[in-house]
Amino acid sequence: MSTGFNRRDFLRTSTIAAGSAVAFPYVARSQDSKKLRVAIVGCSGRGGHGLGMVKNEEVTALCDVDEGRTGRGKQMFPNAKVYTDYREMYKKTDDFDAVIVSTPDHQHYIPTLLAIRAGKAVYCEKPLTWSMNEALSLMAEAEKHKVATQMGNQGMGSHGWRVAYDYVKSGAIGDVKEVHTWTPVHGGWFTDGIRTPEGKDEVPKSLDWDLWLGPAPVRPYVNRHYHPARWRGWIDFGNGALGDWCCHLMNAYYKILEPGFPTSVECINQTGPAIDTYPKGKSVKWEFAADGKRPAFDAYWYDGENKPPRIPGLEEGRKMGNAGSYLVGTKGTCWVVGSHNNSATLVPETLRKEVGKPEQLAPKSLGHEREFIMAAKGEIPYNAPLSHFGYGGKLTAVALMANIAARVKGKLLYDAKAQRFTNSEEANKLMSRKPRDGWNIV
C-alpha cells in the first residue's frame, strides 16, 4: 500500500522517542501548557467516550477510517487535524502527547504500539488487543519505554470489586477454591454464531474499507455485518461476548487474587463451532496453580446460552442477575454483582451480617480515566493507573486463551515462562496471525 507505515517511517518515530529529553517529552509539555494534547484513533462509539474523557484537555488529532464519524470531535475541537490513516498521523508525532485508541479489536495493537514507541501516553479500550501475543507484546513494550498506559475497563474505578477485595483479603470467605463469571446473549451489535455472508455491497462514500480492514484478511464489504459496531462476533475482527465483557467481569477476581497465568485452559461446553464467528454460548475452565499462601483454584466463564451454577448458599427467591462473578471460599461466597463490578456482598446473608463491614484494604480510586490523565501529565507515576498494560495486558491474554480453547479441542497446557502452549501447536498458531502487507511492525 502506498500509505503503508514502512521501516523508514517506523525508525523515524522510534528515533524521535529515543532522542527526547530523558524519556518523556509529553510530561514537560503538558505541565507547561496545563493541558494534555491528545490524538483520538477511532472517533465514534467508544471514541465518543474518549472525547468526553479529555473534554478539558486539547485534542489535536482525530483519526477515523469513516470520515462521517469525526463530526462530533471537530465540533468539540475545531482546530484538530483529521486523518483517515493513523500511520500518517504517526508521521507527525510532535503534534500530540497522548493517544486514545477506540477502534475495533483487530486495530488496537498497531496504533497502541506506535504510541508507546514514540514515547506517548496511551489509553486503549478493552480488550487491550485482538490476540494473546499482541497483549504480551504491549505489556513488555510499555514497561520497556515506561510510558503511562491504561486499558479501558472502567469497572476498575468502581466500588464493587473494592468491597469484594476487602472481604476476601480479610479472610471472610476463607481460601478461594473456585470462581464463576457469566454474561448473557447480547443482541443488536453481536453476530456470534453466524457464517460469513455471500455477495458484497457498495462501500459507503465516507468509509475507507481497506483501512478499516487494516491487518485483517481482505473480505468484501456487506451492509450491516461489520461496520459500524457489528464486528465483535467475527473472529477476524473481534473476540465475541468474551472479548467484549471479560475485562469488566473478570477484573474483580483477577485484581483481588492477581494469579498470573493459568496452567491450563479448556472449553468444556459450547453451542457450536467457532468458524467465522464465535458460538452463541460457551463455558471455559482455567486452572491456576498455588502461589505462596494462596491455594490453587479454578476459574469458570459462561457466556450466551451457557449459564453458571447457582451461587452456593444463595437464598431462595434471590436472583443472580444477567451478569456477575462470585468467588467460592472454604467459609462462604463473595458475590460481585453486575457487569462492571457494581457492588459486592457475602452469601449467605447470615454470613454478611456475621462479618459486618470489612476493613478497607483495597486501593482507593482517583477515577479510572483521571488516573490515566494524571499519569500522562507526570502528576503520578507512569504505572500508577490500576489497569496499566502490565496488568491489563495480562488480564487480556488470560481471557483470550478462552477463545483459543473454543477453536482447539481438549485441555490446553500453558507454560507462562515460555509463553506458549506445551501440548498444541495449533493453539500456539492462534496466539497471533500474520498481518497483511503494509501492516506488519517488528
Structure in words:
The protein is built from 15 helices and 15 strands. With 442 residues, it is of the alpha/beta class. It has 2 domains: 7-156 and 369-386, NAD(P)-binding Rossmann-like Domain (Rossmann fold, 3-Layer(aba) Sandwich), CATH 3.40.50; 158-189 and 237-363 and 399-429, Dihydrodipicolinate Reductase, domain 2.
TL;DR of this structure?
The protein is an alpha/beta fold and 442 residues long. 30% of the residues lie in helices and 18% in strands.
Could you give the topology of this structure?
Elements: H1 7-19, H2 25-33, E1 37-41, H3 46-53, E2 58-63, H4 71-76, E3 81-83, H5 86-89, E4 98-101, H6 109-117, E5 121-125, H7 132-145, E6 149-152, H8 160-169, E7 176-183, H9 209-213, H10 240-249, H11 251-257, E8 264-270, E9 281-288, E10 297-304, E11 324-329, E12 333-337, E13 343-347, H12 349-355, H13 368-376, H14 389-405, E14 412-415, E15 420-421, H15 425-429
Parallel strand pairs: 1-2, 1-4, 2-3, 4-5, 5-6, 7-10
Antiparallel strand pairs: 7-11, 8-9, 8-14, 9-10, 11-12, 12-13, 14-15
